[in-house]
Amino acid sequence: APSYIRSIMPYQPGKPISELAREMGMPEASIVKLASNENPLGMSAAAREAAGRALAEGARYPDGSAFAFKAALCRKFGVRQEQLVVGNGSNDVLEIAAQAFLAPGLSAVYAQHAFAVYPLATNARGARGIEVPAKNFGHDLDAMAAAIAADTRIVFIANPNNPTGTFVPGTQLEAFLQKVPRDVLVVLDEAYTEYLAEDQRYDAIAWLDRFPNLLVSRTLSKAYGLAGLRVGYAIAHPDVADLMNRVRQPFNVSNIALAAAEAALADDEYLARSADINRRGMAQVTAAFAAMGLEWIPSAGNFVTVKVGDAAAVNQALLRQGVIVRPIGGYGMPHWLRVSIGLPEENARFIEALQQALA
Ligand code: PMP
């Protein structure tokens, strides 16, 4: 393998529930997993029914153009089919962007403590990653604009960011886009955008008319509750979408996933419930941090990152109590743990376990 492949740091997924249950000799039902920013409500009933109906068509290939799902996106966002790329999760969208726009001799800009897939996708193409130091754990957009080099072809921005939960206001993003050369694609990763508070909301899709080098990436994995089915999408200029659709796998999303995604997209009631549960859970968890005298990073997502000292040791103590969270030493934050917001009783189990672990 080329040296740029050998130098890639492997992505560290959360421990599976079954594996921890086996290791700890606990029943699976007693394990609380708050490690992967999943939706604690599970799949919406509408999505589950649609997936079940699609299963009957399983012997046929899925629609490689994702026509029906794209039509639903067009109705929802007032965009055209030619502006869309559908991915096997938004990770796939990010990778397809890297495949289409990066190569050895080119570079991508991303922030310190930003989502791990940006360096992964960049390195896998043999391109150079330019990591820009974070400001208050978030994106320093001025420094990122200044870091763009002659060979830069992509800037990755996660808003909100994972794992830090930091958020950049829309006005600052717009000002950033004004400064970026038109031959640099700005990949705006909005995986958690549905969790934004009313006063944080902005409409990046409306900016596409003015910025043909903008790509808005979204997912059905978080607020829409379909992490296991793998559906994400990009909205961009038709020329950008066209190049990406040339390199993606022709049947990259299954018929079951597409059917569920179309149904999920229409289920506004489920989306509102997800955001509401998250808002309350965030208040519950951060109130406990405050009571324990712990520092945390205010988060706009469905997870929050808290400073616990020796995070590897605290993580082990949580695992022994059947609670799975995410240590983020790999993100250069060895003293912090990221915890996803769960149902009220799951949050309570986590809080109790953390109190034990730190006692
Ligand atoms: N972007 C960000 C910022 C994320 O945190 C995640 C999920 N960890 C993704 C993209 C990818 O999620 P998915 O592939 O499930 O859409």
UniProtKB/TrEMBL annotation:
A GO molecular-function descriptor: histidinol-phosphate transaminase activity
Recorded catalytic activity of this chain's protein: L-histidinol phosphate + 2-oxoglutarate = 3-(imidazol-4-yl)-2-oxopropyl phosphate + L-glutamate
Ranges of residues in domain Aminotransferase class I/classII large: 31-354
Cofactor(s) required, per the database record: pyridoxal 5'-phosphate
Main enzyme class: transferase
Pathway field: Amino-acid biosynthesis; L-histidine biosynthesis; L-histidine from 5-phospho-alpha-D-ribose 1-diphosphate: step 7/9
InterPro entries: Aminotrans_II_pyridoxalP_BS, Aminotransferase_I/II_large, HisP_aminotrans, HistidinolP_aminotransfase, PyrdxlP-dep_Trfase, PyrdxlP-dep_Trfase_major, PyrdxlP-dep_Trfase_small
Enzyme Commission number(s) from the entry: 2.6.1.9
Record keywords: Amino-acid biosynthesis, Aminotransferase, Histidine biosynthesis, Pyridoxal phosphate, Transferase
PROSITE patterns, alphabetized: AA_TRANSFER_CLASS_2
Residues modified as N6-(pyridoxal phosphate)lysine: 222
Family: Belongs to the class-II pyridoxal-phosphate-dependent aminotransferase family. Histidinol-phosphate aminotransferase subfamily.
Description of how the protein assembles with itself and partners: Homodimer.
Name the UniProt record assigns to this protein: Histidinol-phosphate aminotransferase
Gene that encodes the chain: hisC
